[in-house]
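re: ur question from yesterday

yeah so i grabbed the chain u mentioned. its 649 aa long if i counted rite. heres the sequnce exactly as i have it in my notes:
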Amino acid sequence: MSVNVHPAGGTVAATGGCCGGGGCGGGPVVSQPGFLRPRFFAGQLLTEDDLELLIAYVTGKDRLRNRYLFGAGVVCGLEVACPPCGGGKVKVQPGYALDCCGRDIVVACAEEVDVNALVRDLRIARLGEDCGDPCAGKDTTTTTGGAQQGIARHYCLYLHYAEEPTDPVAPYATEEPCGQGCEPSRVREGFNFLLRCEDHEQPADDAVARVLACLPSRTTDDVARRVDRLDRYGRPLLDAVSSVDTPVAFEAADAARFRESLDALAEAAPAPEAAAAPQPGNEQARSTTDRLRVLAGGLARLDLQDPAARAQLQKDHGLDVDKARASLAGAAERLGGTVERVWADRLDREAVAALLAQSARLAEPKGPPVPQVELRMLAQGVPFNAAVLTVLREDAASVREWLLRWLDQRPNLTDCALRDELATVATATGAEPDTNDRGAVRETGAAAMRLAAAHRRTLVDCVCAAINPPCAPCEDTGVLLACLEVRDCEVVRICNAARDFVLGGSALRYWGLGRLHEVVEQVCCAKPRVAGKPMAAVTGAEGAAVLPFTSTAFAGPAPERPAGLGAELLPALAQLGMRLPVPFPPVGEAQRPADATAALAGQLAALSQRVAQLSEQLSDTRSQLQQERGRAGKPPAQRPRRKEGSGGS
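ran it thru and got these structure tokens back, copy pasting raw so excuse formatting
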């Protein structure tokens, strides 16, 4: 619903559609994309179609540029304020705005808008009939103190583009059999105001929201956990299988971890004379389990050595292997009843159970040995057995299925080879796997690595696509000016901060971001240095010449020429007598006089102070906007949705 406004004389009626039925392009619909431009030649018979096409082309290009280059919103002005006499009205100051079709909306003079009349029009649009004056019977509500006051209602004021044909002219005689009446010779552009009920903002659809949608969320947490498992186990599985026939190195870092974990387990162990120790808590159990994993991994590396090499390593690094085996046995026994209680993740439970079983085997060197692949996985700090392999195979199958389904649902995929590569990933399922089957372990490791890499590629594809801005839709041609709080048919509060701004040069300069030109002016427009009077012409008290002493008289060896832009730019500026007020290291800094260093330091200090002032101004502006939203009586995170015809009146 709209109220007609009178710009420069004449009533302006609202027109439907984005551009009067012709679409946002402003030109005729053609079979090929793009604009149709008229071409004129000598002897051509010009008709109204040719001239209208020229107008449509120019207008359409202007609106296209406004729509996609600048966007919809308020460019300047259009403040909504309370008029001096009140009476349920507001005053809109002159200004300029763009709607989502790129059409210019110019308010040349201040306009007084009757909010109560707009509320009545809104009710007519919602209910389909006129219910009379909305202020005839004022609604009241009782407060806690017993005082009666009107119900607060919240609306938002929108500005709409409008146009109307005007200045009718009688055409010359034509060949029309029935004659022809007057035709309008001009189209007057104007505007009107509409009031809508305040609605909560729809979820944002910008680059940040789309990037966040690419990241793991509640709907994809399970997939992210499975991918993390595969990523954690893929490389160690391949390394364990490929190194079965080669020795495993034991270095100084391994010895340090061995000693640290052994000491930590010894400190956490209960005293020998103590009674039966209680079960450790969740945090203590996790910490002890991790120390046990490190110690068991170091002992596994030692057991993978031949006896002579093992004895030499113990001697070189001072390792107490017997104490370590005893600590393994004690810690594994204490942690035996904590697996189901502490570890919620299925793979974690299976891995901890494998760690405890393998630690018990390592504590008894004369007992049955740990299988080679499992021992080499443990040497990498990754507990592994047949149950863990089963979980990994299930994860691989699940992740592969999810990735293929995600690719099928993605319309604008840029990683074109990803789908075909996923189709070649083999994921085994079925019977209980055997960790001694190196082929099966290798296949699972390779699938885990490829699937984890494919998942990363999907994230990169999604994030990179989210960065590319889409063409904004134009479903609502209204430009939000302000949100109003109305009580007892009086406007009691106005929030102009709810509007969208067009981030043009004038707005950026007004907010202080354009003051960078002051820094540029200091650099580019400074008066060049000129030769002054000879110092010998300056005399002291007794007529003697004042000659300053030069601290450096010899250039010395040529300084090393730095690379980059500064190597070319700074010497050239120095020859021009200019100094950059930025912390670039000048060429030949060691040979620069002390006074030049002090001058540069002063310029840097002044620039830093200026940047701090600009930052403070931006912070104050942001605080003022938040305070304005708070005075309007709504949270800062809530914004009205530009959808006409929703909510109650």
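noticed a couple things. The mean pLDDT is 77. also The longest helix spans residues 594-631.
anyway ttyl
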